[in-house]
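Students often ask what a holo structure prediction actually looks like on paper. The answer is less mysterious than it sounds. You provide the chain, you provide the ligand, and the output is a string of discrete structure tokens encoding the 3D arrangement of the protein together with glycinamide ribonucleotide.
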Amino acid sequence: SLRVAILISGSGSNMVSLVESMTGDHPARPVLVLSNVPGAGGLDKARARGVQTAVVDHRPHKGDREAFETELNTVLEEARPDIICHAGFMRILTPHYVDRWAGRMLNIHPSLLPKYPGLNTHARALEAGDSEAGCTVHEVTAELDAGPLLGQARVPVLPGDTPAQLAARVLKMEHKLYPAVLRRFAQGERAPIYMSQETAED
Ligand code: GAR
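The corresponding structure tokens follow.
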């Protein structure tokens, strides 16, 4: 089966949804969870699920993205991933990393790209008065939050929503969209899939 590495920086809830999806007849399996933040909550969650973990701290390489990415590439090369899922991995990447793994990297972003690349997506959607929000899974290319679309899920914006309330609604959909896209990607499928909260209710 295909080998999947998952890159995180924080709580790792998307990582958990990916790991827990890779059971039974799934065409892939998790071989590594890697964090650039030493104390990231997701590391314990990965270990608790029997997945090997690694930390590549970016801070000793302050201001030198290539040095950080050299170390990242070395650790990943040992894991020999066929697919790398970025799941709340909060580093800007350069061609030093992106070219090494071209065609194998997925990312989830909490907006309906091409709207709101970058940070604070939910506050920006509310500020703009949008009636819907959502999340996007795309292939990673050198341009931030801009690679080919693999999947998108929409949720309504409700009256009085705070950024935190909207983030929670979107995150639930992230946990459905990302595993669905990963399974298809592992099967060689590149056509995007679309979900909305109405069609994804459990
Ligand atoms: C998720 O909402 C993810 O879409 C977002 O960070 C959160 C990570 O949560 N990613 C980005 O903003 C990437 N720029 P998690 O650690 O619980 O999966």
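DSSP finds seven helices and eight strands in the chain.
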